[in-house]
Amino acid sequence: MKKEIWIPLLIIIIIAFGGLSVWYWIKKSKEKKATDDKDVKKNTTGGGVAANAQILALQKELNSKLSTGDEKLLEDGILGPKTRAAYLKVYGKNYGESAVNTTTTTSSNIDFKALADALFAAMNNPGTKVNLITENIGKLKNADDWNAVKTAFGTRMNSMGNFSGDLLMWLKSEYKTEAPITVLELQNTLLKIGVNETIA
Predict the structure, then answer these.
(1) Is residue 45 included in any domain, yes or no?
(2) What's the predicted TM-score (pTM) here?
(3) For the chain, what is the radius of gyration of the CA atoms?
């Protein structure tokens, strides 16, 4: 075969082989994507978020422990705000956090866990109940009591699942829209027990 013929023929073969390789790679990529999409559809719920078997099991467990009047969770395997709020309600801590130490004691004869729960209820339910907040904080005798109730409060998420914070963060959030005189009343209540915290 003449040199003038086999060189162009070799180039054509190389180009054809390269084109075939590209076509085969594209075909395999499309097949893999189709398989992946099928798996995602099989293992996801609304919004295309991958469902998690562990979260699904957690939701079933939480539903079994929630009180009769509580709204049950949708068992969809998604760790959303409602699941986090239910976890906090049932276990007293945020999902993935260590348990809150609620055994702090001081010289005062106060149930700090109950006091923290009362403060949370006054702030978590619709409409800030400032009188209940002031009344409960008024039970504290000194700065040690304040620190103990903060420890018992820990970090909590609201029932809507869109806010989480410690006691001071909750108070700041709740009092930011209150009248200055109301804020001053709480500040003075804290100052009487030797606590100088800025509320708003």
Answers:
(1) no
(2) 0.49
(3) 30
